[in-house]
Structure formats: C-alpha cells, structure tokens
Amino acid sequence: MSTILSISDLSKTYDGGFTALHPLNLDIARGEIFALLGPNGAGKTTLISIICGLVNASTGRVSVDGHDSITGFRKARAQIGLVPQELATESFETVWATVSFSRGLFGKPPNPALIEKILRDLSLWDKKDNRILTLSGGMKRRVMIAKALSHEPRILFLDEPTAGVDVDLRRDMWRLVRRLKDAGVTIILTTHYIEEAEEMADRIGVINRGRLMLVEEKDALMRNLGRKQVTVTLASQLGALPARLAERGVRLGDDGRALTWIYEPARVRAGMPGLLADIAAEGLTVADIDTRRSSLEDIFVDLVKGAQ
Length: 308
Description:
By secondary structure, the protein is α/β, with parallel strands linked by helices. The chain has eleven helices and 14 strands.
C-alpha cells in the first residue's frame, strides 16, 4: 500500500523553550485508519496542527500525497480535511450555507448534489436550512465533519470527533468513517474514547510528552503487548497454594478456590495448557474457567505509566 502522508524529523519547540514535539518520523498508508492515542498535552493536536499548516514546525518536513507542506502548501492542504476539537462555526449561517462556503474556500466549483449527499450521510439533511446556533452540540459536531468533507479531501483528520457526542451519534460517526475508508479516504483519528480506536483503527500510534512511543498494527499490538488473565475455580477448597503454581505466578483467592494467573501470551509458550497440566499434576479438579484478554485501553495505560 502506497504512502499518502510522510512526516520526517518533525519537531516543535516554542519561544519559551518548551518542546511540544520531539523529532518524529511517521508514514501513513493510503486508505488506512490510523489512531493516534495519548494523554492530554501529549502533542497530538500540535502534530495535527503542523501537518494542516496551522502551526509552524521547528524542524522537519511533511509531504502530503507528494506535495511538500511548505513549498506546495495549497496543493498539500487541498488534500486534507480537518475536524478540530473546537466547535468553530458561524452561528447565524444555515447548515447548507456553512458547508457550501467551506467548499468554495478551496476553490472548488459549486456541487449541490455532493453537499446534499454529505448532509444526508451525516443525518443533517432535515437541518439544512437551520441556523447553526439552533443545533445541539452533537449536530454542530456533524456540521464540522460536513465542512471538512465538502472539498473532497483524500485525508481526513478527526481530532476528538466524538467529544460531547451521545452514544447514538458516536455510532453513526463510526459507520460514516467506515464508509469513507471504503471510498478510499485516509482517516487519522485522535480520541479519548479508546474503544473507538479498538473498533476502527488499522494501526495505532501512542504519543506521550511529545514523543512517538510506538506505531504498530492494531492486531499485532494486541497480540504482542496484550496480557491474558485466567481464573480457574476449583471443585474444592485449598488450604495453601502448591509450590509449582506459585512459581508460575498464580494467586490463590481468599475463598481458597479461585486460582488467578496473569500472563503475556507472546512470552509464555505453554500458556493455558501448561497451567491446566500443573493443576492436574497437583490432583486438583477444575469446576470452571474464565479468561479475559487485555483491552487496548489496558495496553495504552501500561505504556503511558511505564514512560513516566
């Protein structure tokens, strides 16, 4: 898959000496959904702002579909749609006028059929003649997405797109993102709702304190860094944990019947079969087994805590 966005040695240090972004390198593949995760102040918005030409980088370069973001700014920026965190719209304009105007800002000719399709896809068609100030926060967020899509960008940045949006609207946006991906649009998503990244992303990047800590395919990340918790309920109570189970790292519950083992499948060969073999070797009878795998949120929290 070809690269549509290439970032090389990009950094940002402000005049006061604060480094918001340490030199980083990142390539985004055409048509993928890339989720950038990080705590508040990690550098996510700074990175997006530099790519979109809103903030000047201290070092490095950005290439957008072959166009340099400095020497070919207009062509590079025309490939990008941005949905910022802030709801910045003209309150007294109608939805239709706002979205149509955004298309015109990029020198695109009027295309009422396209604007209608975008509004219908975002469940905004019945609001097209409403002034922005009359809309709910969730509807305003949809208008922001419609504006970003109005000039038919090939890359769409969604910076916390579902902040303040209810569950139904969030799911609608997930469906829209999948449709855009199917149409060949590259999606770069930052979010505090890690389930969004787990649900939709092809690759995950984790940024913390201005440093890109990790970039990996989501499935590989879950495999390599994920942990598994196995809880085995015994048929009868134990007075003490057998030595071979203790050596494995198994914990005995207060009730004397629950054996809990947390392990990393990528690093433990035998895994569950080995645990069950050890339990059988002790002459213990299993009544029930429950397993749980780490979520992406668990992995993210562990990564960020480990970097502190």
